[in-house]
Design a protein that fits this description.
This protein is α/β, with parallel strands linked by helices. It is about 40% helix and about 25% strand. It contains 11 helices and 14 strands. It is globular and about 70 Å long.
């Protein structure tokens, strides 16, 4: 099908090329051979009278025209996909559906088990594909790679709908035989200690920026871990401490020789939030899953 002389099938290839900025990866993304994707790029260049992707060193970069096309093309395809695939009715007791959910190991530990138990009873044929947090929150939502994103409120995107699931507060954990922090955790002791933190993706943790702005100093970070739930383990046998979610600390205290301390300063609560693409708001199956998630979150 053509629209103003453009083969509309090329829009899918164009989106893959603009997103991946690599012919081989773009071809793999839409299940084409590399020669077929190269041919599609040549046709697109001819239609737009623009290189779209130009070589700079060993990389392909978007031309200004391609940059201008990136969001509109993605928006058009998402509208088409959401219109075609949206379910206007959904019977959880009988229907099969697969959902992609991106969430941290913290949410997988304290929230997901209860949701899975509920889905197992109400929707036995529903499948969940769980994806780890990797710093690509904006990409996975915009490109429709996930159905739900479960993240702290400061990480979600302003242009897509959200709803809060539950709140959490932070505490500190130390080895229960810490050589210096024995009866009280003061601000001075907190600042003097080495810290164990979690870090996902390329961006610095939000907490670091907040803490520096509040106190004008940086924590001395000595260990950076890839998961939140591992932090209490890494303070055992050391003079370090970790600032963690209260539910994680309480769970780890059951099996680890750690002590839990209230923070020696005020810190905003974490608001765990659920987000989805705005074009999928009316999908009946996703609406049902969101309702289940909200009810589970309120019961935590």
């Amino acid at each position: 099908m053509r629209f103003h002389g453009l083969d509309l099938n090329l829009l899918v290839a164009l989106n893959a090329l603009l997103t991946e900025r690599n012919i081989s990866r773009a071809a793999e993304r839409v299940c084409l051979s590399q020669p077929a994707m190269s041919n599609a790029l040549a046709r697109l260049r001819d239609y737009f009278n623009d290189e779209l992707l130009s070589t700079v060193g060993r990389q392909l970069v978007l031309t200004p025209r391609a940059e201008a096309l990136l969001e509109p093309v993605r928006e058009v395809l998402m509208r088409i996909e959401s219109t075609i695939s949206a379910r206007w009715s959904f019977d959880p007791a009988t229907e099969a559906r697969s959902f992609n959910i991106q969430l941290s190991d913290y949410s997988a530990t304290v929230f997901l088990p209860a949701l899975i138990q509920r889905l197992s009873k109400e929707a036995p044929k529903v499948r969940l594909n769980l994806l780890p947090v990797d710093g690509r929150q904006s990409d996975v939502i915009e490109q429709g790679e996930v159905d739900l994103l479960i993240m702290p409120s400061q990480y979600v995107l302003a242009q897509h709908p959200t709803t809060p699931l539950f709140e959490e507060r932070y505490v500190c954990v130390t080895w229960d035989e810490h050589p210096e922090i024995r009866t009280e955790l003061t601000v001075e002791a907190y600042l003097a200690a080495g810290h164990v933190i979690a870090h996902f993706g390329a961006k610095a943790p939000v907490f670091e920026g907040w803490f520096f702005e509040r106190y004008g100093v940086s924590r001395r970070i000595e260990i950076t871990a890839p998961t939140l739930s591992s932090l209490p383990r890494f303070v055992v046998g050391t003079p370090r401490l970790a600032t963690v979610h209260r539910r994680v600390a309480l769970e780890c205290q059951k099996s680890l020789p750690i002590k839990i301390w209230e923070l020696p300063f005020e810190m905003p609560k974490l608001v765990q939030t659920m987000q989805w693409h705005r074009h999928r708001t009316n999908d009946a199956s996703l609406s049902w899953l969101r309702q289940c998630a909200e009810e589970v979150g309120r019961a935590i």
